[in-house]
């Protein structure tokens, strides 16, 4: 079974802890990493890639010191090693312009405003991980029970 990861990044520890806690029910089949800065994320990505692990989803705050979430996600989207990674912007302070840039430049799949709905975020991540597995060509069967079954059925029926 391939090792899958989700990375959550926010410079506010209490927000980061809340996101990780909300995603905790996915932790029986996917590893959840947390980072407090864009620089920390880039270092972690290099380490995980070197170990042959996959990052399926990154959830990023926007307003962070040093590197904004949009800048981070844009940097990641330009790295071919992570072309299948799904990106989520979870923030309360992005402007309309920031959001457009995130979608057009960084390839953000979803946008959530703070405060977010934990159930909606978790189900979104489950769906994005399912798409990641199929898009990247990984074997879905070891994760079958945990994946978004509607996406699995759609992907399997479209392959016939």
From TrEMBL:
A GO BP entry: phosphorelay signal transduction system
Matches recorded under Pfam families: Response_reg
Swiss-Prot/TrEMBL keywords: Phosphoprotein
Matching SUPFAM superfamilies: CheY-like (SSF52172)
InterPro entries: Bact_response_regulator, CheY-like_superfamily, Sig_transdc_resp-reg_receiver
PANTHER family xrefs: RESPONSE REGULATORY DOMAIN-CONTAINING PROTEIN, STRESS RESPONSE REGULATOR PROTEIN 1
Protein name: Response regulator
Organism: Vibrio qingdaonensis
Taxonomic path: Bacteria, Pseudomonadati, Pseudomonadota, Gammaproteobacteria, Vibrionales
